[in-house]
């Protein structure tokens, strides 16, 4: 397992772990001599689909990295439209690395960011700060406030969460199906 230090915003344990899985299994991927024949995949359509479900504020390079790495063997329909928890994505990334996914360091960061922002399910009452921050697109002050508040009283829904300063309603609207309480 190779480990890397996060380049952005302090406590991103989840991100480092996801990245380590994607990178750490590269050795195994590289050892796979023969891959099964690949279906015909339309890169332009794939990129459009990946961008279509991404946040307007996302860096387009993130969607490009996902297209380049995650649609070489199958269509993005394998993963778009099925948000998962951080733990489930870790399993998928590990599985894909074993099957031969070979992202560069930069692509790992871009892919993890894309998934956190667009395809990750978080539980507002139980997920760690390092998952809540990127998915809610909230700064450390806001995520700290969430963690303190849930220690006293559970969040019951979106309206409740929106009352925390720094939590953006526009983001919560997008996250409706990806927030658990
Ligand atoms: C080297 C080829 C390859 C690459 C690159 C690849 N995959 Fe896969 N992926 C597969 C294969 C093969 C399957 C079918 C595996 C199976 O069903 O056991 C699969 C299946 C999946 C599934 C369905 C798994 C399930 O359990 O339902 C998801 C989700 C997925 N891939 C996501 C991704 C993501 C995200 C990436 C980019 C990080 C990626 N894949 C890159 C080969 C690849």
Written overview of the protein:
- This protein has 10 helices and 3 strands, in the order ααααβααβααααβ.
- The chain has 181 residues and is mainly alpha-helical.
- The protein folds into 2 domains: 13-118, no CATH class; 123-180, no CATH class.
- The protein has a 3-stranded parallel β-sheet.
- α1 packs parallel to α5 (86-99), α3 crosses α4 (60-70) and α6 packs across α7 (129-136).
- 31% of the residues are buried.
- Bound molecules: heme C.
- The site of heme C has 15 residues, from α4 and α5.
Q: Give me the Rg, rounded.
A: 17 Å
pLDDT averaged residue by residue: 86
- Are there runs of 5+ residues with pLDDT below 50, and where? 1-12
**How much helicity do the residues have?**
55-70%
Count of folded domains: 2
Strand order of the largest sheet: 1-2-3
Assembly type of the chains comes to single chain
The count of β-strands is 3
Bound molecules: heme C
- Give the terminus-to-terminus CA distance: 33 Å
How would you characterize the largest beta sheet?
3 strands, parallel
Give the overall form. Answer: elongated
């Amino acid at each position: 397992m190779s480990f890397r230090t996060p380049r952005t915003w302090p406590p991103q344990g989840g991100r480092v772990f996801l990245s380590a899985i994607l990178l750490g299994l590269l050795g195994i991927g590289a050892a796979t001599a023969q891959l099964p024949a690949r279906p015909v995949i339309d890169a332009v359509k794939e990129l459009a689909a990946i961008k279509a479900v991404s946040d307007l504020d996302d860096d387009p390079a993130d969607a490009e990295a996902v297209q380049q790495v995650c649609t070489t063997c199958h269509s993005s329909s394998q993963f778009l439209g099925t948000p998962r928890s951080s733990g489930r994505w870790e399993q998928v990334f590990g599985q894909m690395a074993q099957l031969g996914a070979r992202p560069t360091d930069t692509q790992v960061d871009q892919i993890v960011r894309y998934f956190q922002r667009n395809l990750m399910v978080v539980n507002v009452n139980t997920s760690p700060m390092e998952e809540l921050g990127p998915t809610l697109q909230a700064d450390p002050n806001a995520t700290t406030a969430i963690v303190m508040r849930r220690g006293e009283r559970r969040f019951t829904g979106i309206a409740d969460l929106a009352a925390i300063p720094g939590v953006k309603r526009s983001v919560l609207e997008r996250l409706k199906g990806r927030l658990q309480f």
